[in-house]
Amino acid sequence: MESIPYAQTTGTLESMLEKIKTASVPEKFSQDFVSTVLGMKGGSARSTIPFIKKMGFVSDDGTPTERYREFRNPNASGKAIADAMRELYSSLFSANEYINNASTDELKGIVIQITGLEKNSTPFKKIISTFSALNKLADFDSRSYIPKVDFDEKEKSISIKSEKFVPEVKESINLSYTINLNLPATTDIEVFNAVFKSLKEHLLDN
Which InterPro entries does the protein's record reference (predicted)? Predict the structure, then answer.
């Protein structure tokens, strides 16, 4: 049987995520930051910090990750939660790739199947409540956020090599171009869509 992570207090998790959106990004996401800046004190707030790390928002040393920053972007926060859920609940998505659209009864059945927990147990109830709380914030279909493709960066540059060819017939000139694409190391299809869309608009259609 497999264990599934959950937040100790769903309400505290929801509140902490909401406060993360408005507070500045700290150097370290620590208990002091949660208590002083986010204004969340007590055991429930402290116990939520490890789950924020499990979501991939904070690294083991307390440093906020790129997903943490993405979540603070109003246009990408739903996508960040969806990405976190795919990792947190990989076993659930393996059992049903559309588990985020499943009914509560279907969700409960799969959790029981995977974990072997009793339906009335506290961990089972917390798994269901945590998944449901995150699912309300997630956007699994978002296409509104397209990562910025900076063509000035070395790893994301487009280099163009042109060669002028002049045949014996002086009246015509043929130009040939060699376009070398150095694409970023990513599996996000939107990055490639942005690259080729920009290439088409600025080079191929001119």
Answer: DUF5343
Report yes or no: 6 and 123 within 8 Å, Cβ to Cβ.
yes
Tokens found for residue 153: 């960066």
* DSSP H helical ranges for the chain: 10-22, 31-36, 43-54, 66-72, 77-88, 90-95, 104-115, 122-137, 189-199
Can you tell me the distance from the alpha carbon of 140 to that of 74, in angstroms, rounded to the nearest whole number? 15
CA distance 3 to 58: 21
C-alpha 88/C-alpha 95 separation (Å) is 14
The average confidence (pLDDT) of the chain is: 83
Enter the tokens of residue 40.
């969340």
Helix segments in 23-121, DSSP class H = 31-36, 43-54, 66-72, 77-88, 90-95, 104-115
User: Which residues contact residue 158 at a Cβ distance below 8 angstroms, ignoring those fewer than 6 apart?
Assistant: 151, 179, 180, 181, 182, 195, 199, 203
Taking the C-alpha atoms of residue 177 and residue 102, their distance in angstroms, rounded to an integer, is 51
Q: List, for residues 81-98, the tens digit of each pLDDT value.
A: 999 999 999 999 999 999
Q: Please, are residues 159 and 177 in contact by the beta-carbon 8 Å criterion?
A: no
Q: Tell me which residue of 119, 134, 138 sits closest to 48, measured CA to CA.
A: 134
Asked whether the whole model's pTM tops 0.70, one would answer no
